[in-house]
Amino acid sequence: MQKISIAIHGGAGTILRSEMSEEKEVAYKEALQEALDAGYTVLEKGGTALDAVEQAVISLENCPLFNAAKGAVFNALGGHEMDASIMEGKTKLAGAVCGVHNIKNPVALARQVMQQTEHVLLMGEGAMDFAATIGFPFIDDDYFYDDFRYQQWLKIKDSEKFQLDHSDIKDKKFGTVGAVALDIHGNIAAATSTGGMTNKKFGRVGDSPIIGAGTYANNLTCAVSCTGSGEYFLRGVVAYDVSCLMEYKGMSLEDACNEVIHHRLQSIGGDGGLIAADANGNITLAFNTEGMYRAAKNNSGYEEVSIYK
Amino acid sequence: MQKISIAIHGGAGTILRSEMSEEKEVAYKEALQEALDAGYTVLEKGGTALDAVEQAVISLENCPLFNAAKGAVFNALGGHEMDASIMEGKTKLAGAVCGVHNIKNPVALARQVMQQTEHVLLMGEGAMDFAATIGFPFIDDDYFYDDFRYQQWLKIKDSEKFQLDHSDIKDKKFGTVGAVALDIHGNIAAATSTGGMTNKKFGRVGDSPIIGAGTYANNLTCAVSCTGSGEYFLRGVVAYDVSCLMEYKGMSLEDACNEVIHHRLQSIGGDGGLIAADANGNITLAFNTEGMYRAAKNNSGYEEVSIYK
């Protein structure tokens, strides 16, 4: 039997049990289950890993609980700027957008960049022009309004603080969503999407839209999607580092992920986590924070939906 | 004697001898020599590799012959959008900007991002706001006007073509500039700057401002600056790939650069080159194109200013 598998994340961070009500925990787990099922259904029907990670991330993007698309945090101007990327392990083709707005599903736009242009990364208004050119739908600002996110922003908007959707406030987490998958054809893929940092200024771009940092996929090694302190993931070139440890040092997926998250990333002061899959059906969910919203499933009977360690 | 060394590039591509006049060749070589000297002088005086690569790149940015800053090509809107990045091998700190305009020296702004923010990458108008906030000087559009670049753009502006400052036209090259250096303190650094693609649309971002793709530096391995078909360098995570081959496979700087440029990059269809330095005083200038504008110098008597193979 050809293996299929999928893993998703909804961000990592110091998710404190004391701040989590039973009701909230149920809501998070239901949302994770829904996204997992959205991706797994694609795989079960013989669909591609690329379709599976896109569908799983779209499900997470459509959920207000996670900091991506619908649940994107407010930037310093009271708006929403989003980043996303996607990569296919078979062809090593990739697409990404950064600093887009009024896009319901940035991951779907990233996929169009991959498929309809010779480019990998489009930014800001240029990416919006591309979206308009291909007839990609736009959505009103209202769609992104969320009272909880707005209150988060109001608390710090007059300060110099940026927030990775965590620290100082009750809901402490790095806000990013992502997925990795292996399909029945033996191909893997990865995708990541984020709403950035609350009160983000200056067009800051983190690791989420950067191939090699926040997202990477190569059939020979692994598919990886990251979440955490983006600047450290950029400087550590984290997603590709996992791939290189496998390709150049012969490490297993699990050993490579643990080496990167628990040693290399921590040695430069970075925190967060990642999800990874390889073409042999292995899945690793690694994080050096209190928790990571995560879920995974394969066709050998393994299924997990978890928040804490 | 502690070794010092520096290497610079002014882009790679199919630089045809038949299109190059003796006069033009002299002008290019003089400009390369000037940039080399600007960086080497810093090192000779005991300055840092970070200062040396910044000064060398500023010299190249100020020269209209190269596609960066002063010589930046025109984008689809008839304007100039520039990207730059810089990284320090000792601290693995990095700074970068993408899609900026009216900035005389984007590499200097990238360094300010590294030193004055907790961020790595700032994009577009947000990066411009950051520049304004720190009192970074702006310069008029006129500064970037160059008749040769304007004629390049006029020829293709009504087409769907993008140009990496090469192909179809006489002056065939990938337009990027960069520098790597080793200082007397044993630290290395790398910097890259580009004016992008002629008739560039949709806010396309290449590898130049991306840490791990176009620029990387780590004292334990190497400092790298790339130039070439940016999308392939992004997908290949080229600069960090050189570092990983050294760190994880124990390759020498030269072997790692050759493996990446002549095998791994070519296997996905990418062309271009890179310059690299390590903390032991080694320098490698590798490219899989007809030529690369390049120069290098150390304090053991080696000095080179070259264009062709």
Strand content of chain A: 15-25%
Largest interface: A-B, 45 and 45 residues
CATH topology (fold) name of chain A: Glutamine Phosphoribosylpyrophosphate, subunit 1, domain 1
Could you name the CATH homologous superfamily of chain A?
(Glycosyl)asparaginase
Helix and strand content put the structural class of chain A at: alpha+beta
Give the % helix of chain A. Answer: 25-40%
What's the gyration radius of chain A in Å? 17 Å
Mean pLDDT of chain A: 92
Labels describing this entry:
globular, 13 strands, 8-stranded mixed beta sheet, 309 residues, alpha+beta, 24% strand, 8 helices, homodimer, Glutamine Phosphoribosylpyrophosphate, subunit 1, domain 1, 4-stranded antiparallel beta sheet
Could you walk me through the main structural features you see in this protein, from its secondary elements to its overall organization?
2 copies of one chain form a homodimer. In chain A, helix 1 (22-44) packs antiparallel against helix 2 (49-61) and helix 7 crosses helix 8 (253-267). In chain A, the strands form 2 sheets. In chain A, strands 4-3-2-6-5-1-12-13 form an 8-stranded mixed sheet. A 4-stranded antiparallel sheet of chain A has the order 8-9-10-11. Chain A has helices at 22-44, 49-61, 106-116, 124-133, 147-156, 230-236, 238-249, 253-267, and strands at 5-13, 82-88, 94-100, 121-123, 177-182, 188-194, 204-205, 215-217, 223-228, 272-277, 283-287, 291-298, 303-308. Chain A contains 8 helices and 13 strands. The longest helix of chain A has 23 residues, at 22-44. Chain A is globular, with a radius of gyration of 17 Å. Chain A has a single domain, classed as (Glycosyl)asparaginase (Glutamine Phosphoribosylpyrophosphate, subunit 1, domain 1, 4-Layer Sandwich), CATH 3.60.20. The first copy, chain A, is of the alpha+beta class. At the A-B interface, strand 3, strand 4, helix 4, strand 7 and helix 6 of A face strand 3, strand 4, helix 4, strand 7 and helix 6 of B.
